[in-house]
Amino acid sequence: MSEISELGKPVVGRGFRLQWEPAQEAHVLLYPEGMVKLNSSAAAIMSRCDGVRTVADIVADIERTYGVTGLASDVNAFVAMAREKSWLEMKE
Known about the structure:
With 92 residues, this protein is an alpha+beta fold.
């Protein structure tokens, strides 16, 4: 997986749409060929990827929201994987 900069600003990739799907009782990532059902951790990260917040901001917000620390490596790994799948694009 590629290295993720803490200053990068992830945004949902072109052709994808993140939304809550009541029938799935989960956030999903929609794209023309289908849908990806996200688990709660992935949804927490993806919902913060607005192209404005940096990866460091996202980590800090999630850690503050859930009252935990040490999530940077997990968030970075997810962002890297999501970039490889084109779910996310990075603004620098």
